[in-house]
Design goal:
single chain; about 300 residues; alpha+beta; three-stranded antiparallel β-sheet; 10 helices; 7 strands
Length: about 300
C-alpha cells in the first residue's frame, strides 16, 4: 500500500484523480438508482400493509378531522416506522390524514371508498451515503496497473544535441588538366571541356589573378602574356598525354571560345548566380559583343576559390 501512495505522490496524481472522479460519479449514480428502486418497493409494501389494515383504520379515520388525538393512530404509525427502520428502509410514514399533503401520498381505500392518505418521507442522505471505499481502492489499483504495464518514458531533460557544422570548402572551382574537366567542388558536378577553351580559361584565371585591373577586350589584340599562358597550358596537356592534333590560335574566334567557357560554367553552377559572376567571363552589355567597353577580366576572382589538378 505504501508503494501505491509513493507512486501517486511522484507520478500519477492526474491519472488517479481522473479515475477516482469517474468511478465515484458512477458509484453515486448507482446508489441513486438503487435507492429509487428500493423506495418504490418499500412504498408498495407500505401501501399493501395499510390496505390490509384498512378495516381497522376505518373507525379512526371516519371520526372527523382531529386524528392526531387518537393514540391508536400514532402507535400504528410508530410501529410501522420501527419495522421500516429494522429493514434499513430509506422511507418512513410522516402522517395519515384525509387530505393530500404532498406528492408522496398513498390512498387508503376500503370498498371503493377513500378513507385517507398515507404520507411518506424519505430520509435525508448524508455525505457518507455517497462516499464508498470501492471507488478509492479501484482507482489506486488501476493507477498501479497502468504504471506497471505502460512502457516507461524517460522525461528527464535531454542535453541539447551538439550542432552539426558542415565544413564548406574554401575552394569552389577545380580545373582538372589530367581529365580535361572543370568541377564544382561543393556539389561534385563536373563537365568536360575541349582543348582550346580549357587552355584559354586556365590562362584567363592566372592572368586575372595577377592582373585584376587589366582591361581585356575580346575584340582587341590580347596581351602577349595572356597568349603565352594559353600556349603553356596547351603544352601541359601534351605532357599529360592528351592527343593533340594541332596547336590552336588563341587569338582567333575569341567570342566563340568565351561562349564555350560560359556554357561550361553554367552547367556546373546552374542556379548559383553569385558563383557565375565570379568564374564566368562577363558578357557584353549595351552595344553587344563588339562593344569597346566589353571587359572579360575576372575581377572578382580570388586565388583561394579555385585550384588546379595537373598544373
Amino acid at each position: 500500500m505504501n508503494k501505491l501512495f509513493t507512486l501517486l505522490k511522484h507520478n500519477n496524481w492526474l491519472i488517479f484523480l481522473s479515475l477516482f472522479i469517474t468511478l465515484q460519479a458512477a458509484y453515486i449514480l448507482g446508489i441513486n438508482k438503487s435507492t429509487q428502486y428500493n423506495n418504490q418497493q418499500v412504498a408498495a409494501a407500505i401501501k399493501n400493509k395499510i390496505q390490509q389494515d384498512a378495516h381497522v383504520l376505518s373507525y379512526v379515520l371516519l371520526q372527523g378531522t382531529e386524528y392526531a388525538e387518537f393514540s391508536f393512530l400514532n402507535d400504528y404509525i410508530n410501529q410501522l416506522n420501527q419495522e421500516l427502520s429494522q429493514q434499513q428502509a430509506k422511507l418512513k410514514i410522516s402522517s395519515i390524514s384525509p387530505q393530500v399533503i404532498n406528492n408522496s401520498a398513498l390512498p387508503i381505500q376500503l370498498k371503493d371508498q377513500t378513507l385517507g392518505y398515507v404520507h411518506l418521507q424519505q430520509d435525508t442522505p448524508t455525505l457518507s451515503n455517497y462516499l464508498g471505499i470501492w471507488p478509492l481502492l479501484a482507482s489506486l489499483v488501476m493507477t498501479w496497473l497502468l504504471n506497471a504495464f505502460t512502457p516507461k518514458t524517460n522525461f528527464k531533460q535531454q542535453p541539447p544535441e551538439p550542432e552539426v557544422t558542415v565544413d564548406v570548402p574554401d575552394v569552389w572551382l577545380q580545373i582538372d588538366l589530367k581529365e580535361k574537366k572543370i568541377r564544382n567542388v561543393i556539389s561534385g558536378t563536373e563537365v568536360y571541356v575541349a582543348n582550346k577553351p580549357l587552355c584559354f580559361y586556365c590562362a584567363l584565371v592566372d592572368f586575372c589573378i595577377d592582373n585584376p585591373e587589366t582591361f581585356l577586350n575580346p575584340n582587341k589584340e590580347l596581351p602577349p602574356e595572356f597568349l603565352a599562358l594559353a600556349n603553356k597550358y596547351f603544352s601541359r596537356l601534351m605532357d599529360l598525354g592528351h592527343t593533340i592534333r594541332k596547336r590552336p590560335n588563341f587569338s582567333n574566334n575569341v567570342e566563340k571560345t568565351l561562349s564555350e567557357i560560359r556554357a561550361a560554367i553554367d552547367e556546373i553552377f546552374p542556379n548559383d548566380l553569385s558563383k557565375k559572376a565570379i568564374f564566368s567571363p562577363p558578357k557584353a552589355i549595351g552595344e553587344g559583343s563588339r562593344s569597346k567597353a566589353h571587359n572579360v577580366n575576372l575581377q572578382q576572382l580570388e586565388l583561394g576559390k579555385i585550384t588546379f589538378i595537373g598544373k
